[in-house]
């Protein structure tokens, strides 16, 4: 199996040079305007997708190209599922939110290329029992829960889709390689503590907090809820393996009510796991890790461009972006 990935992993080593390096991030952050940032991006790998006038379309096409190329390099079913079911979750969110939270009309909604589930099935499954039979179990359970009420809010749909996204990662990414277990658990743990810190600032009840937590982190929802009630969240976070370096940022977020520093340290930790994770040299793991690194890079570029458009100062961007 490892020998079949020699060529693919060699290609990934070359593809990694298309990720933005520290120098480019510094130039983007220091750029005086969004227009200048776009000009700089035009000289990178992303320039090949900038014929799409809308940058969101550019990013979607760039992500699709990354995923499709790696899938072509690998026939490993674990990698294909791990990548494409995550795309299906995103499409299901777009489609089900449109169909269930509005007036019931099937208005056109922008979606990505289908993963392993045809978008037509995602559409039809809302009203057709037969179409639901073609959904994987996790997707089917989520849709059935959404359909239990005659009308659901956007917030409720997003909550269910967040749970589905986490469940897919716990199932599919970990299946690629056990090294991804640490990444997935770390990602969920970070999201839960970020949610808890924001709820603490807003004075949210512990019962409502419980509804917002995701299963699958290092600590159970019960443990986080109890620490939330006792105001001992930093101490609980300090018990999380590998989290000692970000406890101070978490305490600062709770004290100041500002979360940029904590989010930056969380993203930095995830990037470290992807770049230095305990993955085999050969196999599907480096390919999947590269896809997620590209996904995070695009997420940070979206944030940067939005900040530039809003006139956010360079110092604030440096306090938020892990490459700052």
Protein architecture, described:
It contains 17 helices and no strands. The chain has helices at residues 6-15, 22-30, 34-42, 55-73, 77-100, 119-124, 129-132, 137-146, 154-176, 179-202, 206-212, 221-230, 233-238, 247-256, 260-276, 285-309, 314-320. It has 3 domains: 1-15 and 29-75 and 283-324, no CATH class; 77-177; 179-278.
SSE diagram, text form:
Blueprint: H1 6-15, H2 22-30, H3 34-42, H4 55-73, H5 77-100, H6 119-124, H7 129-132, H8 137-146, H9 154-176, H10 179-202, H11 206-212, H12 221-230, H13 233-238, H14 247-256, H15 260-276, H16 285-309, H17 314-320
Contiguous runs where pLDDT drops below 50 for at least 5 residues:
none
Q: What is the succession of H and E elements? A: HHHHHHHHHHHHHHHHH
Rounded to the nearest angstrom, the radius of gyration is 20 Å
The percent of residues in helical segments reads 55-70%
What keyword list fits this structure?
3 domains; 17 helices; mainly alpha; 324 residues; single chain
Question: Summarize this, please?
Answer:
The chain is 68% helix and 0% strand. The chain has helices spanning 6-15, 22-30, 34-42, 55-73, 77-100, 119-124, 129-132, 137-146, 154-176, 179-202, 206-212, 221-230, 233-238, 247-256, 260-276, 285-309, 314-320.
């Amino acid at each position: 199996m490892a020998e079949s990935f020699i060529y693919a992993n060699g290609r990934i080593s070359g593809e990694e040079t298309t990720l933005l390096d520290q120098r480019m991030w510094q130039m983007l952050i220091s750029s005086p305007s969004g227009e200048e940032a776009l000009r700089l991006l035009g000289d990178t790998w992303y320039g090949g997708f900038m014929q799409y006038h809308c940058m969101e379309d550019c990013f979607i096409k760039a992500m699709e190209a990354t995923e499709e190329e790696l899938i072509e390099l690998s026939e490993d079913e674990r990698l294909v599922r791990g990548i494409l079911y995550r795309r299906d979750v995103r499409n299901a969110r777009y489609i089900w939110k449109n169909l269930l939270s509005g007036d019931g009309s099937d208005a056109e909604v922008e979606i990505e290329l289908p993963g392993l589930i045809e978008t037509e099935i995602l559409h039809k499954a809302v009203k057709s029992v037969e179409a639901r039979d073609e959904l994987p179990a996790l997707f089917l359970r989520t849709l059935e829960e959404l359909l239990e009420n005659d009308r659901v809010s956007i917030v409720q749909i997003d909550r269910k889709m967040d749970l589905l996204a986490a469940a897919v990662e716990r199932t599919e990414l970990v299946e690629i390689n056990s090294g991804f277990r640490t990444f997935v658990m770390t990602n969920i743990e970070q999201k839960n503590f970020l949610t808890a810190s924001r709820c603490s600032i807003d004075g949210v009840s512990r019962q409502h907090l419980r509804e917002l937590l995701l299963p699958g982190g290092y600590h159970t929802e019960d443990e986080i809820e109890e620490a939330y009630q006792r105001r001992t969240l930093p101490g609980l976070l300090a018990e999380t393996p590998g989290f000692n370096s970000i406890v101070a940022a978490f305490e600062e977020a709770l004290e100041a009510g500002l979360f940029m520093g904590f989010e930056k340290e969380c993203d930095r930790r995830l990037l470290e796991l992807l770049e230095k994770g305990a993955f085999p040299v050969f196999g599907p793991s480096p390919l999947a890790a590269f896809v997620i690194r590209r996904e995070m890079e695009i997420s940070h570029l979206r944030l940067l461009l939005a900040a530039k458009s809003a006139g956010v100062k360079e110092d604030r961007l440096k306090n938020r972006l892990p490459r700052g």
